Amino acid sequence: MISDAPVLQQSSEPVESAAAPSRLSRYARPVLGLLLPATLALAWELVVWLGWSNGRLVPPPSRVFAAIADLARSGELLRHIAATLWRVGLGFAFGVVAGTLLGAISGYWSLARRLLDPTVQALRAIPSLAWVPLFILWLGIFETSKIALIAAGVFFPVYLGVMGAILSVDRKIVEVGRTFRLSGFAMIRRILLPAVLPAYVVSLRVGLGLGWMFVVAAELIGASEGLGYLLLDGQQLGKPAQILAAIVIFAILGKLTDWLIELAAAPFLRWQDAFSRTKGA
Amino acid sequence: MLALDRVSKTYPNGVEALARFSAEIGQGEIIAIIGGSGCGKSTLLRAIAGLDRASSGTVTLDSEVIASPHAKIGIIFQEPRLLPWLSVADNIGFGIADLPASERREKVARALERVGLADKARAWPRELSGGQAQRVAIARALVPQPEVLLLDEPFSALDAFTRRDLQDHLLDLWADTRPTLILVTHDVDEAVVLADRVLVMRPRPGRLFDQIEINLTRPRDRNSPLFETFKRSVLTSLDRSLDRNVPDRDATQGPGQAMWW
């Protein structure tokens, strides 16, 4: 602030040269990460192009993209993506609401924790896919059972994350709230909520990851649309390119939604003294 | 006036942390409480703050019994305990959230100016040094204008130079509104620099052992011979408080009892 101009004038050259390698590495780093998969993909493309392999079981990238383009052109792709997104979104919403509420109650109120937590932990120990037959019996083969399964998958990490975060809020910070006579709702809003937010965001991201996992399970069981249906369809009709196309789209959507959560949470977490912040530059 | 009447605290595990502590502290007085470890200094302070309930006895401020945190009583802890998700300015304004925004902004700005951190208003607590963070904590406690400010070893985690600086700064701030200050410390220098009266406590169970009036005008010169004299008398009293063979020179007893022994 004080001496912006003179500093810039005096040392514009050294600053430039010092900044150059860091700017280079900022672009170079993602490229570095892409190097391995891109090389492998190109090599395989080449192998198939040269006729060393027919590429029928492991289609080269060009065929995978062609499959995606085919699906997109017919409007099929959008329909499948919409169906899957709708299921994940709804299941995620239910799972997050239930997990947040129960997790908060268990974390805040020790009697509720003693009553509730053992049961939840016991249920958590059951592999969630074991519920599938029961959910189908109870809720039918259509949307409800699928969404219930996804919600169950999302519920547990969110519940655990919220409860653990509340339990680990620093007693000393809570005491600051007490000295300013905060109680009940004000204590939750002004002290507990901001204190648990970083851990909560992590649990949401873990929950979303599980949501994507369970949507595949749900759609493999019986669906007439959705990306999971594309997988199954590809297997039954022997179209590996279609399977890989669905997998690629799963990867893109998973990454994208995770990034959305990160993006939405970022303004609230600017205060964090994070490891990544100190290492990032 | 703050009156402590036979304040006692026995913890659930049977440890008697504080036994029948009585004292009367006038408005605007600066009290330092000093004593060996485990003498119940912090227990006493937490009871005055209303953070812990005394097992028996009462704390009254202007004839109002204190049983839970009170608007007229502020506290500063050993650690700054700033809320990491609030900016420095928002931390200072934390206790006056119910005031209208414009008034709050004005008070916060004045407090920031007063503790010399006006340029740090938008900074995060993690960006502050230890001394700066503790100054923010002081400002946060003073902004609601408490009648009594409790300080629990507030400068003990700081280096000697910063500590001196903050001691002087605290006195400076105190002069603005002259709240009652009750400072728990284990630093004899600090007690003599700041206090009108030093209460010496003795441990097991924690109780009042001795009182020493510091009749020195402010600002006090840490190197004057008189300062040394007061320091020595506090140290002597402190030594005697830790000697089991010395009987209590208990100031809480009535005049009749005092004459009796």
UniProtKB/TrEMBL annotation, chain A:
<dbReference type="InterPro" id="IPR000515">
    <property type="entry name" value="MetI-like"/>
</dbReference>
<feature type="transmembrane region" description="Helical">
    <location>
        <begin position="191"/>
        <end position="221"/>
    </location>
</feature>
<keyword id="KW-0472">Membrane</keyword>
<feature type="transmembrane region" description="Helical">
    <location>
        <begin position="88"/>
        <end position="111"/>
    </location>
</feature>
<keyword id="KW-1003">Cell membrane</keyword>
<comment type="function">
    <text>Probably part of an ABC transporter complex. Probably responsible for the translocation of the substrate across the membrane.</text>
</comment>
<comment type="similarity">
    <text>Belongs to the binding-protein-dependent transport system permease family.</text>
</comment>
<dbReference type="GO" id="GO:0005886">
    <property type="term" value="C:plasma membrane"/>
</dbReference>
<dbReference type="InterPro" id="IPR035906">
    <property type="entry name" value="MetI-like_sf"/>
</dbReference>
<dbReference type="GO" id="GO:0042918">
    <property type="term" value="P:alkanesulfonate transmembrane transport"/>
</dbReference>
<dbReference type="GO" id="GO:0010438">
    <property type="term" value="P:cellular response to sulfur starvation"/>
</dbReference>
<protein>
    <submittedName>
        <fullName>ABC transporter permease</fullName>
    </submittedName>
</protein>
<feature type="transmembrane region" description="Helical">
    <location>
        <begin position="147"/>
        <end position="170"/>
    </location>
</feature>
<feature type="domain" description="ABC transmembrane type-1">
    <location>
        <begin position="81"/>
        <end position="261"/>
    </location>
</feature>
<feature type="transmembrane region" description="Helical">
    <location>
        <begin position="31"/>
        <end position="52"/>
    </location>
</feature>
<feature type="transmembrane region" description="Helical">
    <location>
        <begin position="123"/>
        <end position="141"/>
    </location>
</feature>
<keyword id="KW-0813">Transport</keyword>
<keyword id="KW-0812">Transmembrane</keyword>
<dbReference type="Pfam" id="PF00528">
    <property type="entry name" value="BPD_transp_1"/>
</dbReference>
<feature type="transmembrane region" description="Helical">
    <location>
        <begin position="241"/>
        <end position="261"/>
    </location>
</feature>
<keyword id="KW-1133">Transmembrane helix</keyword>
From TrEMBL, chain B:
<feature type="domain" description="ABC transporter">
    <location>
        <begin position="2"/>
        <end position="228"/>
    </location>
</feature>
<comment type="similarity">
    <text>Belongs to the ABC transporter superfamily.</text>
</comment>
<keyword id="KW-0813">Transport</keyword>
<dbReference type="Pfam" id="PF00005">
    <property type="entry name" value="ABC_tran"/>
</dbReference>
<keyword id="KW-0067">ATP-binding</keyword>
<dbReference type="InterPro" id="IPR050166">
    <property type="entry name" value="ABC_transporter_ATP-bind"/>
</dbReference>
<dbReference type="InterPro" id="IPR017871">
    <property type="entry name" value="ABC_transporter-like_CS"/>
</dbReference>
<dbReference type="InterPro" id="IPR003593">
    <property type="entry name" value="AAA+_ATPase"/>
</dbReference>
<dbReference type="GO" id="GO:0005524">
    <property type="term" value="F:ATP binding"/>
</dbReference>
<keyword id="KW-0547">Nucleotide-binding</keyword>
<protein>
    <submittedName>
        <fullName>Nitrate/sulfonate/bicarbonate ABC transporter ATP-binding protein</fullName>
    </submittedName>
</protein>
<comment type="function">
    <text>Involved in beta-(1--&gt;2)glucan export. Transmembrane domains (TMD) form a pore in the inner membrane and the ATP-binding domain (NBD) is responsible for energy generation.</text>
</comment>
<dbReference type="GO" id="GO:0016887">
    <property type="term" value="F:ATP hydrolysis activity"/>
</dbReference>
<dbReference type="InterPro" id="IPR003439">
    <property type="entry name" value="ABC_transporter-like_ATP-bd"/>
</dbReference>
<dbReference type="InterPro" id="IPR027417">
    <property type="entry name" value="P-loop_NTPase"/>
</dbReference>
